[in-house]
Amino acid sequence: MTTVEALKGVMLETGAGWVLWLLGALSVASLAVVIERCLVLRRADVDLRALGERLDGLLHEGRRADAISMLDRAGGPAAAIAAAGLRLSERGTHAVERAMRSASALHRGLLEQRLAFLATLGTNAPFLGLLGTVIGVVQAFEQLGREGVVAAQGPSEAVMVAIAEALVATAVGLLVALPAVAFHNWLARRVTAILDGADVLSNLVLAYLSAEPEGERA
């Protein structure tokens, strides 16, 4: 038995049903990821205008410790990034900027968790569907060969039904991929917006610390 015959035998034995079940499971998993990420990003999104006004007032009064406590209570990546910089304020603006960059990279990784799964699913789900279609077409032609249908008579109804069912796999792959890509792009934009908003507080912290003389900052 050649390699081609062995592969054809596996395709004929397994069929394309497992591809549809796999796509269904991946679709459920992607929905779970989308819901979980939406909840995470919802908690991460804060009122930057109100938070910035409170931080501005505390820094204007020189109450740096109270500002750190307020940011810790506020929660969210923007507050955590600003607080990370304020904790190193006595080491100079250079250290503050590096600390906030480090905190920003850390929170970016936390916010982007599992987004790669959605991107990978959106890219590869159509190929999985195409694999199911190929397997279905192989089964249809195998059935056509067994029936010995001549060209003049045309393919039997069973063969046409098998080909139509094979094409369903491609359609399912697209139906799984399109929402995954759409949600990935939307969630990625949300992450970018949250981290861009963190720059509001970071720049405010740097503005106050840059205006202070070195001795007064210490």
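(ticket continues) Second input and output from the same batch:
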Amino acid sequence: MKQSVKRRQPSQDRAQKTQLLIFETAAKLLEQEGLEGFNTNRLAQASGFGVGTIYQYFADKRAILLALAQHEQGRAMQEVRRLLMTDLAHLQSEDEFPRVRAIVRAILHTFSSRQRAHKILIDLALNADRYDQPDNAVMALSALLTSAVVTGKDGSALTLTEIDAFVLTQAVIGSVRAAVVRDGRMLKRPQFEDALVGLITGFVRARRERV
């Protein structure tokens, strides 16, 4: 059965701030108390809003958590979008494709903070009855990579096809999520970052040489 994540979309600045505060409080509660200590009454108490206000935006506890997962993914995608538009000279990287490491770090930073909360959200998403719906994080990042020109320090450029971008995104996001579930400490290891950078760089290099 399909379920609406939110009962309404905020239509004004105050409503948007309210929703953001609910998300922030929900993430802190998950990190500090786990799923067992999370419910709408506890969220209302911690956020300073009444339970009625919470239900104006979300149908139930599950809807809050699914919306929070989408919100966290959205934060990472915003940073990736910014990096794709950043001048290469400002990145100060020795990598063949400077934006690649910056993007990897942005994704790792998102998932490495509040690891307990992100593990709960990932587990929820994997177990949710959402098999007929696309993975928002994968689809968003794939769309960004499809529309962006991947530029190397030597000035070479390549636009990934939709399929290439999707496969590459699945590999990266899948690896990061697996690390969160298996051992979150892996996300802060330089070797893990290097492995992801190497994965993307090798893929892009192979596609560039094929063209």
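Agent notes: Residues 1-5 have pLDDT under 50 and may be disordered. The chain has nine helices and two strands. Closing as not reproducible unless the customer responds.
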